[in-house]
């Protein structure tokens, strides 16, 4: 099926049902903070298929705060669980040749208030991505490194706790023998925005920067009166309502006092430069947050940085987590990510 084909009646009905489920289950977000043990929890036996291996490693806190982050806002540094997903294929999952292993540093979404690297729908997406890479590259060695950063469900974990955790996790991954030229940042929704923010911090701090970034529907520009007319027209088409997005944004900013248009909050406002890594953006045209994707593309084009924006007609936010509704879009996303990450192999997909 064409990933840009108009929605069928069944898909429209399923999107409406998904919207009702999200509306009834997401807010409120305030709850007890997860402990390190809870964030490092292993999925139940049988959750992952036999061709996928998973290991968990704990990254130490970053040795020093990032110079661009306001030291007055920094949270207590904590250790960060990192979930390493691999495909068993021809290359053992133990990553013996890490210098030649592609790493997808994949930051999960959830508006900074929900989800986890082993949340079933994320695990399913990771499985499809690893299987797609294995099939299209002849089992080229690849690992997904998914950090479990702190969620903004308590005042102690609001911005910039998540950013601090992601810097620590990235530093740890590079310390494990992976070559930075093979490490790609990726993320969806809030994770997509985090991936962009992380890239900026890496470039500005002199840390080794990745060669590329994949941002799936980055969650950014959380200011209602700045929504484009196109975005406003999606109010009844997206799976999440504007009030839910607003609640997520408010929770992430929390008591920090930082504006929602601050570049570290809303990544579309980052000061991009021509040295920016090549970037792939994937988003649906029925996504209330589509303005962020288009703004990032516009700003990167303005500084002649390599960027490609793919828009899926009528697809809402979180389409990549709805395999029962949008299998063709997930397959296309996997294919494009594979092409992007293994570009020099000239894959014939």
What does this structure look like?
It is a single chain. With 349 residues, the chain is an alpha/beta fold. It has a single domain (9-344), classed as Alpha/Beta hydrolase fold, catalytic domain (Rossmann fold, 3-Layer(aba) Sandwich), CATH 3.40.50. The protein is 33% helix and 15% strand. The protein is built from 9 helices and 8 strands. The chain has helices at 9-25, 36-39, 120-137, 161-175, 190-205, 229-232, 242-253, 290-302, 327-341; strands at residues 52-59, 80-87, 102-107, 142-147, 183-188, 212-216, 278-284, 307-312. Strands 1-2-4-3-5-6-7-8 form an 8-stranded mixed sheet, sandwiched between helices. Strand 3 (102-107), helix 3 (120-137) and strand 4 form a beta-alpha-beta unit. The longest helix is centred in the middle third of the chain and has 18 residues, at 120-137. It is globular and about 50 Å long. Mean pLDDT is 90; it is low at 345-349.
List the helices and strands and how they pair.
Blueprint: H1 9-25, H2 36-39, E1 52-59, E2 80-87, E3 102-107, H3 120-137, E4 142-147, H4 161-175, E5 183-188, H5 190-205, E6 212-216, H6 229-232, H7 242-253, E7 278-284, H8 290-302, E8 307-312, H9 327-341
Parallel strand pairs: 3-4, 3-5, 5-6, 6-7, 7-8
Antiparallel strand pairs: 1-2, 2-4
Helix pairs in contact: 3-9, 4-5
């Amino acid at each position: 099926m064409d990933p840009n084909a108009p929605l069928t009646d069944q898909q429209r009905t399923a999107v409406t049902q998904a919207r009702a489920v999200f509306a009834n289950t997401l807010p409120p977000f305030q709850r007890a903070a997860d402990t390190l043990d809870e964030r490092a929890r292993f999925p139940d036996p049988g959750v992952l298929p036999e061709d996928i291996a998973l290991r968990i490693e704990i990254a130490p806190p970053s040795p020093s705060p990032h110079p661009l982050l306001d030291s007055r806002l920094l949270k207590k540094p904590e250790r960060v669980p990192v979930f390493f997903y691999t495909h068993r294929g021809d290359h053992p999952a133990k990553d013996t040749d890490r210098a030649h292993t592609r790493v997808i540093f994949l930051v999960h979404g959830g508006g900074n208030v929900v989800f986890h690297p082993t949340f079933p729908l994320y695990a399913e997406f990771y499985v499809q991505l690893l299987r797609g890479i294995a099939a299209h590259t002849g089992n080229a060695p690849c690992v997904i490194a998914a950090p479990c950063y702190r969620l903004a469900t308590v005042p102690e974990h609001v911005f910039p706790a998540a950013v601090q955790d992601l810097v620590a996790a990235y530093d740890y991954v590079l310390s494990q023998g992976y070559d930075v030229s093979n490490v790609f940042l990726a993320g969806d929704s809030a994770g997509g925005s985090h991936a962009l923010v992380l890239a900026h911090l890496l470039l500005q701090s002199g840390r080794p920067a990745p060669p590329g970034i994949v941002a799936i529907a980055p969650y950014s520009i959380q200011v209602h009166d700045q929504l484009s007319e196109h975005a406003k027209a999606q109010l009844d088409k997206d799976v999440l309502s504007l009030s839910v997005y607003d609640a997520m944004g408010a929770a992430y900013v929390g008591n920090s006092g930082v504006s929602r248009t601050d570049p570290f909050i809303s990544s579309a406002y980052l000061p991009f430069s021509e040295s920016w890594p090549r970037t792939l953006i994937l988003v649906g045209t029925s996504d209330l947050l589509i303005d962020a994707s288009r703004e990032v593309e516009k700003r990167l084009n303005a500084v002649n940085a390599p960027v490609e924006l793919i828009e899926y007609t009528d697809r809402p936010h979180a389409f990549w987590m709805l395999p029962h509704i949008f299998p063709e879009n997930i397959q296309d996303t996997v294919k494009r990510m594979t092409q992007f990450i293994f570009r020099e192999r000239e894959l014939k997909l």
